[in-house]
Amino acid sequence: MSGLNDAHLTEPLTENVIGQKKPFLGICVGMQILIDTGSEFGEHPGLGWVSGRCDIVNFGQGEAYLLPHVGWNEITRQNGDTLFQDITGTPTFYFVHSYVVTLSEKIEGAAYTSYGTELLVALKKGNIYGVQFHPEKSQKHGLQLLKNFCELPSK
What we know:
The protein is an alpha+beta fold and 155 residues long. It has four helices and eleven strands, in the order H-H-E-H-E-E-E-E-E-E-E-E-E-E-H.
């Protein structure tokens, strides 16, 4: 967020995405900054386009999962969504992260993975999309997801 703020990009970005309803895809940290507040390197405000928090993954006591979470995981979709169009079955995507978004509002589209606990890994709110995984590193499923995003109508 400090990089966006220092470059004076927060306001024009918000005008395009919120004001003009242009499609936006936040990837990894890009998904994390969509929400109200993040806790990496202290408590910091995000863009606030989606209500929620971003915190380090909490496995609970006695869990033996490592952070960062690096590798391939299957995702499950809660709702059908154009971002996942033509991606069938239970697809796998590539992850590198230690933080997870927790929403405080209901959203249209969501996808989850399991890594010691259930993690939200994709969201859609109107024209705003976020994915915690790296589609650019996720082979055919990731390429299809990026293709789907590029083919969304620009309002």
